Amino acid sequence: MFRYSEGSPLGEEQVIQWLEADKAVKLATPDAAFCLAIQLQTDGKVIGYISLKFIDNLRQQASFDIVVGRSFQGQGFGTEAVNALLYFCFETIALHRVTSSFDKRDVSARRLFEKAGMRSEGEFLKDRFLNGAWVDTVWLAMLSEEYAKSRNRAPLRSPA
After folding, report:
1. What CATH number does the domain containing 59 carry?
2. Crossing angle of the two packed helices 107-115 and 77-87, in degrees rounded to 10
3. pLDDT tens, 135-156?
4. I need a surface site. Which of 43, 124, 147, 151 has the fewest CB within 10 A?
5. Does residue 112 form part of some domain?
6. Residue 3 neighbours by CB under 8 Å, 6+ apart
7. Can you state the percent helix, strand and coil of the chain, rounding each to 5?
8. Residue 159 domain-assigned?
9. pTM of structure
């Protein structure tokens, strides 16, 4: 699960500490990522998370990351979570732009984001040192008008 990302698996005590510290974070908390669990509908088991963070002072742009447990990958859970997040970002809180990035070697991440309709904006060569090697990062984005067009809807109006 952490092959293409920074970090490592957390033990139960570490997860409890993270959840305890994170429970005070709200979507509007400055400079903090707002994390949401990805749960199975059948039994509520947490199988991953998606995080969202505003990246501009106007709160019109956000970036997100997604992590899905290895044994639950390739079953549509990531696609469902990304689509729900994009809906929330564009339909509910009317953002202008949403971005995400991934390690270039992670072909499943590329498929996930492209399936959601995000487009590549650029690639940074050897910009992160990960697991003993310099790796490339691909950035993708979607604008509100691109989201509206992909859903055959009229673009949302920008705030005045």
Report:
1. 3.40.630.30
2. 50
3. 999 999 999 999 999 887 655 5
4. 43
5. yes
6. 106, 131
7. 30, 35, 40
8. no
9. 0.82
Domain-embedded: residue 156:
no
Q: Can you tell me the distance from the alpha carbon of 88 to that of 83, in angstroms, rounded to the nearest whole number?
A: 9
Instruction: Note down the domain range covering 110.
Output: 12-150
Give yes or no for residue 4 having a pLDDT over 80: no
What does the alpha-carbon distance between residue 117 and residue 146 come to, in Å, rounded to a whole number? 8
The tally of CA atoms less than 13 A away on the side-chain side of residue 28 is 2
Looking at the 3D structure of the chain, how many domains does it have?
1
Looking at residue 79, its pLDDT comes to 96
In a domain, 4, yes or no: no
Strand 61-68 to 97-103 pairing = parallel
Mean pLDDT (the chain) is: 86
User: What tokens appear for 44 in the block?
Assistant: 């509520």
The distance of Cα 95 from the centroid of its chain, to the nearest Å, equals 14
Q: From CA 105, how far away is CA 96, in angstroms rounded?
A: 29
What pLDDT is recorded for position 18? 62
